[in-house]
Amino acid sequence: MAKHLFLPRTHPTSLAFLDETGSISQDRFFAVGLLLHPEPSRVLRSIQKYRDRNHYYGEFHLTELTQGALNTYKGFVDTVLADRDFRFFCFVADRDLADPVRRSVDGLPEAVRTVTHRGDQTGRDNNCSGRQLFHP
Fold it and tell me: Is residue 93 part of a domain?
C-alpha cells in the first residue's frame, strides 16, 4: 500500500523558492516573492557551478550588497534568470495605502478576532502582527 503514496518519477512537479522582505507589522512596505521552476535540480546545479567558480558559498542578502559584491550578485541573478522555465509571482503591500494586517483582522469574525488578540475585546488593536494573527 505504501507505494501508492509516491508520485511516479515522470509526474510533473515544481519547486518554489519563497522569500519576503520587510516586516509586515512594522515597515511601510512588505513584499513576498515566489519563483517556481519545473526542474529545480537543473537550476540548483547552475547555481552550484556559479558558486564554485566564484568561491562564494554564503547567502545572497540585499542588505549585504556592497559595491564590491555587486558583480557577484549580478552574476548570481544572471545565472538564475538564464533558465527561462522560471515563473515569478509577487505580493507587495504599501501599509499606508492598504494595510494587509488590518484588512485580515477586519475580515475575521468577531469571535476569532477576540481569541486572536487575547484580551482585546474588539480585536482591533494597533499592534497586531502576522505572528499574533496566526499564533494566538
Answer: no
